[in-house]
Amino acid sequence: MTLRVQKYGGTSVADIGHIKNVAYRVQKAFDQGDKIIVVLSAMSGVTDHLISLAEQASDSPDKRELDLLLATGEQTTAALLSMILKSRGYKAKSFLGFQAGILTDKISGKARIRDIDCKNLKQAVETGSIAVVAGFQGADEDGSITTLGRGGSDTSAVAIASSLKADVCEIFTDVDGVYTTDPRICSSARKIDRISYEEMLEMAILGAKVLQIRSVEFAKKYSVPVHVRSSFNEEEGTMVVNETKDMESVIVSGITCDMNEARITLKRVPDQPGVSAKLFTSLARAEIGVDMIIQNTRSDNATDLTFTVTQDDFELAREISQKVAKEMDAGEILTAREIAKVSVIGLGMKSHSGVAATMFQALADENINIRLISTSEIRISCVILAKYAELAVRTLHSAFNLDQKK
Amino acid sequence: MTLRVQKYGGTSVADIGHIKNVAYRVQKAFDQGDKIIVVLSAMSGVTDHLISLAEQASDSPDKRELDLLLATGEQTTAALLSMILKSRGYKAKSFLGFQAGILTDKISGKARIRDIDCKNLKQAVETGSIAVVAGFQGADEDGSITTLGRGGSDTSAVAIASSLKADVCEIFTDVDGVYTTDPRICSSARKIDRISYEEMLEMAILGAKVLQIRSVEFAKKYSVPVHVRSSFNEEEGTMVVNETKDMESVIVSGITCDMNEARITLKRVPDQPGVSAKLFTSLARAEIGVDMIIQNTRSDNATDLTFTVTQDDFELAREISQKVAKEMDAGEILTAREIAKVSVIGLGMKSHSGVAATMFQALADENINIRLISTSEIRISCVILAKYAELAVRTLHSAFNLDQKK
Hints:
Carbamate kinase; eight-stranded mixed beta sheet; globular; 20 strands; homodimer; 11 helices; alpha/beta; four-stranded antiparallel beta sheet; 35% helix
């Protein structure tokens, strides 16, 4: 018998009508004889509404209380879907995060799953129930409700699938699957049939919003087969799976564009040991994640240090940088918020050279100036001015022959 | 040091502005040096909105799932008030029902509190926090979320107050206290300064909506001093306390009117043992509470049996009655939904005669026909046609000298 974990995102449960449609999909799978665990997001817009309520209540809402507030969104959809299934004669039972056994750390707003004890879910599906889980949430060891961050329901679903060794974790969303790039930017973008966890991870990190980063990490770590597909049609979507030999023949799988970063440069940082450590320790203590870090040596025993953070963390990161710069007697701080990071991703880069050269040449041909560069084994990223972002994506999509066959 | 439990109803937390005002009241009490536990209802209208969502989802929403859905209302207000208090520099911590240690039975929608373990609340207030509790909810022994029925937040508050032996349980609402009758019906109604648990219980049962019945039972059982007062001004409200000697000098304390009942009569019920038991056992099994029961003997070895139930339970009660009537070979079923039950209540009735005579004469003087009568030690109730309800209330209010001094 097949055990399927099905996750439905906010647009798939946007209102009662949509939730009723989700119920039909769930029923269909159940009627085939599969065991089904459903993981739900909040209705689209609800989380934003709750955040705006919190912002009316307080300029900087307490994070523990914000988690409690936000958790009501998924609680609502889980209760409603269970009601609908039951009223149609199916056995169904709702589970909040803590009832589903999701134990997290105490970092409110972006808690990480520490442990997961799925015995209640297991018992439910084994006694013929459809288990309906409120995604995005768990509880810490004190029993306080926590949330897993934007897109956290993906992680709930993958974590449950891994814990119960489900045959597949289906992520139902409002797009048909994972695309070579954002189809809204590039009309010739193609759906990818199969992609490796590594590539998916890079794409998620770099701004492809289809899956939460942590969910991909989780899926990779425990080899959970993930199927990203549309909740509005019956088409096959994208399978996210372990790397296979043939995957390396595709040199570049996708192009991403992340507009959510901002750049901070500290000028004339004294060129001596421990200086970078001081800055990045201060940033880490404030729970600010730093993405790119670039350092250039200068001739006068000082160096310029540049890094990028998310737009959300920018103001705090700038304050901390100014404080540290003053302490270490560095020069002025330069910042830029109107930037974009375009990246090419592909397992094939491991075994093919010349990808960087092709990328830089393609951008140069369009007179797009590259401000920062960073690379990983399967990725090359360039920071450019935000106004060139869409042009860059389309240019690279063509340059690496990703355009749809006409 | 004084421990105060403060409960704020739906109109007191209707929106963020109102919740901010509640926060000022809570702060004021805390700043006086009192320990404060706040119990909150959902924003007014929210519970009804959630019920309508559930009704869109299903014609008869599953009760366990409905409880989960409804519980989001109080979760929201508890999170928001805690945020506001914290952003103003106060230590505050929210608690859901189960986190506050409220263990209930499994009767979804009208669960009863089985046990309450306030160690978490105790610890919070003893370490200088304001504890903010989501009212109306608890959890059963399996960890499923349950709700305590309409007005259940009153019961949450009184139960917590009794468990922690609080000095007072303040019920903040949108009226100034308990009135001799509904001021919307009778403009000369007066606020009562002190009332006994017994009288308050009769008034709550009979439709005075200011306190949930169970909360009064709880308060009476554990002698919790309850102060019903307005959240919109600083006036003293009504103290609900143990009976004192002087209370008996007031013959009638209040007049109530309950429009929420419906009457069912079974004609020609065989006049033999066990017949009533059969009917009322069937009703009890369906969890239908029966209020008045009247039986008249007839000459032909059969009797008419009349009883009243709430409007909500009416349809189901009628179906059950029809089934039982058929089985016992009784006659037709007569029903009436357009009825009102007007009652006079007073501890003084125990020691004063003539109250019934005064009541019946006053109604007769207005040509109001009495359909059913029932009495308790401190109450006389008459069922009349609904269209005479307001006239009856005003007439009785005058007849027992309850009108405000001009």
